Amino acid sequence: MTASTPEKLHHLIAGQWVAGRGDAVRSVNPALPGIVVAEGAAATLADVDAAVGAAAEAARSWAGTPMHQRGAILLEAATVIERHAEDWGLELAIEEGKTRAEGVGEVRRAAQILRYFGNEGDRVAGQIYSSPRAGEQILVTRKPLGVVAVITPFNFPIAIPAWKIAPALVYGNTVVWKPASTVPLLAIRLAEALSTAGLPAGVLNLLIGDSALGDGLVNHEGVDAVTFTGSTGVGRRIAAAAAARGVPMQAEMGGKNAAVVLDDADLDLALEQVMLGAFRSTGQKCTATSRLVVTEGIADRFLTALAARADALAVGDPTDDATQMGPVITGGARTSIQTGIDTAVTHGATVLAGGTPYRDGPLAEGYFLAPTIVEIAGPADIWTEELFGPVIAVRRATSAEEAFALANDSEFGLSAAVFTQDLTRALQAVDHIDVGVLHINSESAGADPHVPFGGAKKSGLGPKEQGQAAREFFTHTTTVYLRGGQPQS
Ligand code: UN1
Q: Which ranges carry the Aldehyde dehydrogenase domain (predicted)?
């Protein structure tokens, strides 16, 4: 790609696009870090005040708007997004670093999520219980929470915001959103789509800035709930802040997701899916495959074939259609992931693929890492700590039982993948592997909009996301004991 003029960053407050007055903020192309993608000035704490105030002011009338009308705006925004899938997908690849095909796919996925929630008005809205008293019914109705703070990560710059903002809005909440400061351009695109679709002023506010701005938002007294996806450290800090203020919070955090390949697996399928799970989006998904457990009967054969595929993966500029894996998001991420690999090697890990930094040429200039596979024989940091990059830590197991135990050997429990053709083994995996999302014979990443998404153990806090699970978080219930005006006996 060629250098072009950086996009100018703006914030959306009370329906107005405004320039910031804070520190300079810019996103760069992680494949060619000399190229600035978007730049401007960050929002300030005064902007947080203004945005929360605008969201609070818009809340009553938005909550009073029929859900079908709220949904119609999401459906229209989905159409706008779909229309821009190719150009916004390219921008996403340039700003975030995933391949163009993945970028376009993600933009389409955002549209699909908006469509799912856009149709929520057609679904069941509450419950009715029978009453032990004559002439009475008990209804459970749902109401919005109020102003929701939405804090989103860099790795899905439009899909994750869509899956938080769409349910927040359709259930009648108003939103103040702070995206990761590395991907502001795609945030602006989503906000533009919703504005173009007719979202009233103040219902969605967008503020771009660093984590201090996020802290200001989360701690703002006008915020009624917080939804967050990102690192475990930040998630726990935000959860503590929300708990201290007594407001509901939902945090999707780390993963250290295992793929388990048993002796009886379809090995070609497992190879393909482990590659996708580990290296798509350069391994920067909380659902990525970062651990691999193989049973002894197929271990040598499988690992040799997997290492050959990893070595053959086309790493390069994500806008080049031949590229299969782009860079990681920042130079800091590249350094910390490489340090994680180096530490494992120092402690005795065997490198099966990759492992060493690119020392010259364009891959050394961009934030690239080689697809890396290391084998370990026992406990190691690379087995327990989320690196959020293109790295698989491998262990061998002597039985399916041991393999499932190794899959569970993590404080996280987001997702796992099990490769077997034996139904009994698959059902044992369902019983024994403690995760929020389990894939049998498919990669560990991926999430459909109509089903619950989220982790077990320390991967998440609060209700799950997506589908009907989203309703649990974005609404509260009022139980109504409903009688007519006649005496009951
Ligand atoms: C996916 O697996 O396609 O931050 C989605 C993340 C997750 C979303 C994963 N919250 O990577």
A: 17-480
